[in-house]
Fold:
Amino acid sequence: MENKSLNLSSLKGKVIAIDGPAGSGKSTTSKLLAARLGYTYLDTGAMYRALTYYALTNKIDLSDGETLTKLAKILPIDFKTTAEVNRVFLNGNEVTDEIRLPEVTKNASEVAAHQGVREAMVLKQQEFGKDGSIVAEGRDTTTVVFPDADVKIYLNATVEERAQRRLLDLMKMGVTTTLQELKDDIEKRDFMDSNREHSPLMKAKDAFLVDTSNMTFEGQIDHIITLIRSLLK
Ligand code: DC
Structure:
């Protein structure tokens, strides 16, 4: 295996943005990459999930964009990240596991489709990244949040492969579901994320496409680090 250490001195202050559909490997890749670079890791999806979790537990109508926008502006969302885990806090309370529950996953696309919600979240995300040295991942980090990112990557994998990965994650959390149910969910979310009116998921023209379907996780990291090295040297 190749030596994955990076020349950190030349990489201070850069913005690396990684987008892609659910289960493409963005989170694990970005987290590890950020740890290796000594960068901040920003999981923008966790922010939409945290708001969705709040709305579900407080019985807020998910079609009420105005109320959700107000909440997106005022609810504090914070992270405490290590190479292993990205802890998420909403209003000071840890919601790391809760925001991964299938109920939140199913409903997050609807919450994330409101323009006001997106605008509020994008401002927060840009604030997190204002000093650079950040790996941000989501659906619009390469197009809307950080359009001038130093490196833009679009990760993808087949629906089958992405559903398999999600199944393993959920099994580890003790959640019971089926592969077919996950495939249906992923297809539905892909459709909603890619066809919504505001900031739909798409590959930025200047983003590098990486298909992870047939890559091991280590292979994927090697590939991305090689790509970043070649782009930033
Ligand atoms: O990446 P994820 O599965 O944790 O994302 C959760 C939801 O948030 C998903 O429905 C897509 C949405 N999302 C978004 O609209 N924009 C982002 N930048 C990140 C996620």
User: Anything to note?
Assistant: The mean pLDDT is 91. DSSP finds nine helices and eight strands in the chain.
